[in-house]
Amino acid sequence: HRNRKGRGPFRAPLYSDQISRPRHRGGHGGGGGGPGPRSRLQDDDGDVTMVEGPQDSGIPFGKKYDKDWLLSSLQSVCSIKAPICQIYHTDGNKAQFYVEDSTTANALFKVSRKITDKDGYKVIHIICNVTVIMNSCPPPALIHTDLKAADLEHLKQCMAKRFDGSQQALDLNNIRVDPDLVSQNIEVTLNRRNSMLAVIKIIEENIPELICLNLSNNRLYRLDDLADIVNKVPNLKILNLSHNELKTERELDKLKGLKLVELSLEGNPLSGHYKNQADYVSAVRERFPKLLKLDGHVLPPPIGFDLEVAPATLPPCKASYFCSEEIKNIILCFLQQYYSIYDSGDRQPLLDAYHDGAAFSLSIPFTLQNASNLGEYQKDCRNIRRMKDDPTTRFRLIKHTRLNVVAFLNELPKTQHDIASLIVDVNTYTATLLAFTVSGVFKETDGKSRDSFRAFSRVFIAVPAGNAGLCIVNDELFVRNATTEEIRRAFVAPAPTPSSSPVPTLSAPQQEMLAAFSLMSGMNLEWSQKCLQDNDWDFDRAAQIFTGLKVHQWFTRINEEFIYKT
Amino acid sequence: MASTVDFRTLVDQSCRYSDEFVNIYYDCIDKRRRNLTRLYLDKATLVWNGNAVTGRDALSEFFESLPSKQATQGQTTLLVVTAGSVKFDGNKQRYFNQNFLLTAQASPNSDQPVWKIASDCFRFQDWAN
């Protein structure tokens, strides 16, 4: 049907042929009503140039008519029931659309001049132009309007009906003519990129564990748009691509990585290419070495090498790792103090937390560096991968010396951290340093992004500094937007107790001591209590811990342990 | 030693080393995992989503037990802090934050000192899910 040869447009007989007109596709420039070399036989209306196959049809002056009206008018007089129009656009004065095949073309041809617009003009000439179509050409990428949200929802429902949960199988055979979609006028043509991508997205978001997928009868002529499925649906084992338009086995390269066990390709042009079955199987297995069934035929099992280990599972993720109770207390005390100043509105007092030669820098996720509401952080983002040619900026963006560090921190938006949610990983503790990574969530409390939730990962490196205690030498902060899940969980949990041991009831003197200690240290009651408990309710000892003298001793002790263990 | 070299020079040097390290590390972890432990100190610690692994033997076992992965681009700053996305076989792609403490050590194999990882801290951004 599509193989009719032609050389340039030739026009089927129409009464307008009786007029000698220049050989062109029937379009007229100028508006309706303008003077021109028109015959008295011709009304002031538009001509449709229609071409068979994926070529364009045209309705000159079609622009002045509403697309929906035009198409429904055509359809109302036309004998074809299915939607006729693949792509519709206006080009100057012409409205052009594509039709599927010659049957549709002929049917439309018959309705030439049968449609009257509201002004009484006979609106449509249909001229049947059959133009060269030797190979099916892909529809032009002219109008790939993405599916609207409402349509996507319908598509999702439609796919849900075609999904078999017990088999983890999805049947998208000839999806284009699914009554649920047709009745809503939704175009889902899987050989078009936006349709395929929409379908893959729905699978990824709803049924990413999919094992079996049927894409037969969808006129697929290439698999580029399906390639993402390798990453997004990694468990896919059974794939049916039969009765499509794949021309060569090289299309399968785009799906490399899928661990297919069953594949169907019959009814594609590529099937006819092989002289013998063995070559065919071999070519397909090159892409899918684990294949056991091809086109319904069971294959002899492949013989491999015993290199593969059973697919490993990832170790489970855990919360904070502190190394020891002692370090945990030290760090928690430190963080409590640090963030109560950080969130207070004036970060100046943090000067006491930093070493003279401290250095600080900031970064944000790579993909967001050109966009979005992390603007406050963007200009100071120091991603050295992006600065290889700009050592000056690279240098400038490190804040060096505690004055500069704290001055910069004071310029960052005001925050409120969810202390309860902080996760701490202790990287290293040695005789000379303690390095730990804090992650969590905070809210901005002023400025343009007020009430935005951010997530952060912050590496602190601290040293013992004289008799002062924990002193920050390096501070590197990574900020990103919080995910919806993180926002949901933020600020809801009550403050955790630092230890899991049951809290004994306190005697009156203990309660007094607790209140005093909490006041002196600025720590909340829970941590104050912990500190006091750990020190047998000896106020002075507990206070010393807090002011860091013990920290220094701790560093010394670690040093000794380290040496003994080596 | 450090006091005779000015800060600016240190920064530039650090950037160059970090860049080189990141290339080596992520290439190694994708393709030559058996050699990965050689980048670590004998007593290095890895904290992986809250799981602590110390010492070369334990590290070696740990890396062997991970499914194979392809790490992708990240961003680094001074003390080699990276962020990126990674996809382990049979799992979906996930964002991660990672940071390394590198230290220079004398090497039996070369005249020059070599960088060794003293600690490695890795966490998925969505570890709690």
TrEMBL record, chain A:
Q: Name the Pfam families for this protein.
A: LRR_NXF1-5, NXF_NTF2, Tap-RNA_bind, TAP_C
According to the lineage, what is the superkingdom? Eukaryota
Q: Does the keyword Nucleotide-binding apply?
A: no
GO MF, one example? RNA binding
NTF2 domain residues? 330-479
- What InterPro entries does its record include? Leu-rich_rpt, LRR_dom_sf, NTF2-like_dom_sf, NTF2_dom, Nuclear_transport_factor_2_euk, Nucleotide-bd_a/b_plait_sf, NXF1/2/3/5-like_LRR, NXF_fam
Q: Which CDD domains match?
A: NTF2, UBA_TAP-C
The residue ranges of the TAP-C domain are 508-566
Q: Where in the cell is it found?
A: Nucleus speckle; Nucleus, Nucleoplasm
Q: What is its main location?
A: nucleus
Could you confirm whether the keyword Chloroplast appears in this record?
A: no
**Where is the stretch described as Disordered?**
1-57
Q: What is this protein called?
A: Nuclear RNA export factor 1
Please name the taxonomic classification of the source.
Answer: Eukaryota, Metazoa, Chordata, Craniata, Vertebrata
From TrEMBL, chain B:
The protein's organism comes out as: Cyprinus carpio carpio
* GO CC annotation terms, alphabetical: cytoplasm; nucleus
Function (record text): Has a role in nuclear-cytoplasmic transport of proteins and mRNAs.
**PROSITE patterns reported in the protein's UniProt record:** NTF2_DOMAIN (PS50177)
What's the name of the protein?
Answer: Nuclear transport factor 2
Entry annotated with the keyword Flavoprotein? no
Per UniProt, residues of the NTF2 domain are 17-124
Gene3D superfamilies, per the entry: 3.10.450.50
Cite the Pfam families for this sequence.
NTF2
Q: Does the keyword DNA-binding apply?
A: no
Localized where? Cytoplasm; Nucleus
The record's Gene Ontology biological-process terms are: mRNA transport; nucleocytoplasmic transport; protein transport
The main location is: cytoplasm
Q: Which UniProt keywords apply?
A: Cytoplasm, Nucleus, Protein transport, Transport
